Amino acid sequence: MRLSGECRGVSEVIASLVMLLVVSLLGTTLYAYSQTTLNSLQESFQYSLTLEEERVKEKFRVLAVWWDGSDLLNITILNYGKIDISVDAIYIDNKPATRFLSGRGETVYTLKLVHVKLTSPVAIVEGRGYDIVVVSERGVRCEYLWTP
User: Fold this and answer.
1) Which pTM was predicted?
2) Residues 124 and 74 placed together within one structural domain of the fold
């Protein structure tokens, strides 16, 4: 005959072991999740830091704008920074150019020129000033005031 105290003692030990196992599994899961999250944050921070470092090295300017008398423009850009660039967008009076004939997306090496040919998104009138903004793939902007 068993005493009710023996069964109770064994079930408390088993319950304690089960609880210890559950707590260990939860702790391991929490540790793995936190490690993954911290690694992801570290990679994101490193990417942002690298991008910002590259943006500081990126320097370019508009040297000239040629107009053919219609709506075609040829914009000459000089890369004088420490890193290669690529023209991503051009805005004329805050309107984005959408039709590029050449030059957009081309790699412009250090101390080299690129000629970007495009159709102007605004009507060009001789004697009026236009604000031209060139944006690189990294988001660096160069503004140029042009009067035909």
Assistant:
1) 0.71
2) yes
43 with 74, same domain: the answer is no
pLDDT in tens, 107-146: 999 999 999 999 999 999 999 999 999 999 999 999 999 9
Distance between CA 94 and CA 138 in Å, rounded? 19
Q: How far apart are CA 33 and CA 101, in angstroms?
A: 49
- Opening angle at CA 127, ends 133 and 80, nearest 5: 30
Name the residue range of residue 90's domain. Answer: 58-146
Task: Using the CB atoms, write b or e for 69-85: b if 16+ within 10 Å.
Answer: eeeebbbebbbebebeb
Mean pLDDT per 10-residue section of the chain, whose length is 148 residues: 56 87 93 93 92 93 94 96 97 97 96 97 94 96 96
